[in-house]
Amino acid sequence: MVVNAQGSRTGGVPGREVGSMPAPVAGPSDGPAQGRVRVAARTPGWGRAVRWTRRALQAAVVGAVVWQVVGHVTRGTASAEAWCPFGGFETVWTLLATGRTVPHTHTSSLVLAVAIVVLAVAGRGFFCGWLCPFGSLQEWIHVAARAVTDRVPALRRLRRRATRSSVWRRVDRVLRWGRWLVLAWALIGAAVTGTMVFREADPWAALLSVAEFELSLAFAVLLVTFLLALVVERPFCRYACPLGAVQGLLGKVSPVAVQRDAAACAGCDLCNRACPVAIPVNTLTRVTDSACIGCLECVAACPSRPALNVTFALPISSRS
What we know:
Helices cover 52% and strands 5% of the residues. It has a three-stranded antiparallel β-sheet. Strands 1-2 form a two-stranded antiparallel ribbon. The protein is built from 15 helices and five strands. Helix 1 crosses helix 6 (133-149). The chain has two domains: 2-41 and 258-317, no CATH class; 49-250, no CATH class. By secondary structure, the protein is mainly alpha-helical. The chain is globular, with a radius of gyration of 21 Å.
């Protein structure tokens, strides 16, 4: 298969190498190679299987949470907040210091927090990309909005100009520090006050209690998140999620990551466009960015089989 620098395929049989004359090879830290590159094509069915498996898991988790919320409202069963692992991290200091947990912490929160640690070390951002229900809702809202704007040329051009401008890139870089600030505020606040200070602004808590129609800071954050999701993929995940920040830190010691072979990169930019959190995949050797949610969309989008793959390596020996 031949892939040109604009990402279009110009022939070839999936799974078979056609020719052996690649374009000039980029270095480990360089951008993608330019021009046409002859590569072994990735089987199209692989990407579809990854996407549908991930969507099925996301739908199953969201369905389970909806079932729990309905049961809580109609039958008084346990709140779906019991499914939130971040409460386990918020209560750690109080639990160690006093033997008690902060209010609204469930035993399941502690169990899930341990599970998050294991998942982050074993699979980096797997929870965020495959299981987190709030991340899934943001993703679905964005996909629906794109389905509309992509059919209106004027809106499509406006969105592309806005999100690809140098001003937006600078704003995006600054806003990404937000989740670290929120994490510090949530953990320090919980340790000092013995309460879940983040809960007052937690859009997930607001969503779970939306049936109560209570206007609050958390509800305002929820509304802003969903509005931003119309134009920005996973805005809360990118800019404000403290649980994502925890996983980003823990994921730094994970041996699992997407590896890029610069020699097989076609320079098509499809991996960058597929990434929900806008990581510049085609400029990296190994994707160890703390924002990575492990969704594998970049790998699924890549037409070159050897260019992007999930590999195992010691964290101390890998570089982004």
